[in-house]
Amino acid sequence: MTPVPHQSNAPxxxxxxxxPRSPLRLRLRPQTPATGYVDGAWWPRxxxxxxxxxxxxxxxxxxxxxxxxxxxHLSDWDAAPRRTAAEGIQVRLDGFRTRPAHTVDxxxxxxxxxxxxxxxxxxxxxxxxxxxxxxxxxxxxxTVEDLFSSIALKTRVPQPRE
Length: 162
Prior knowledge:
The protein is an alpha/beta fold.
């Protein structure tokens, strides 16, 4: 009689790193000569920059290479540290009030910059989809203000800093 391998219908054991991951909500313009104000759009799931940023940087490393610096508008995010680690790289986080609201700049080691329209997390799916598609369109030259005024995007009221 030949031995039969043990078979089980039980699901495989899960590791701590096997957390469910949601797809990144990101649309980028095709790589063409730069025109317009944004290079695409990002729709994070929360206002926590240090939670949301690692997945974005992992995807954009393919396009830009190492990204050691991120600039953002302070009213778009909860309080964030000055530095965070992502993909083993120390990333400097620079929050400004003078930056255009609803944008995030990702700056590569070679100083190439990618500016993304930031779609607020609490935006409806249909409005977010429309904003992302429009921002990522090859011929888009709309300003951030134009993108927001033409689409029913929710905006977050800045919270006073203590």
